[in-house]
Structure prediction request, 64 residues.
Amino acid sequence: MPAIEVPTAFAVFPKELLLLPRKVATAATNLQRWTVMPRGGHYPPAEQPELVVTELREFFRGRR
Prediction:
């Protein structure tokens, strides 16, 4: 059983300072969504707000 049991999503931004390997995320969480973003970095909501909002909407759309 993973440490984080709730449905989890990761948005991976290419210029992030620390990149979590998908294998680790899969082992430690109930990974439901993994998206590699086309751009953005350490402060995604400030740098790419449209991408963040779209990703959040897509994740929660399936949770109703």
Q: What stands out?
A: Helices lie at 22-28, 44-47, 49-61. The first strand starts at residue 4 and ends at 12.
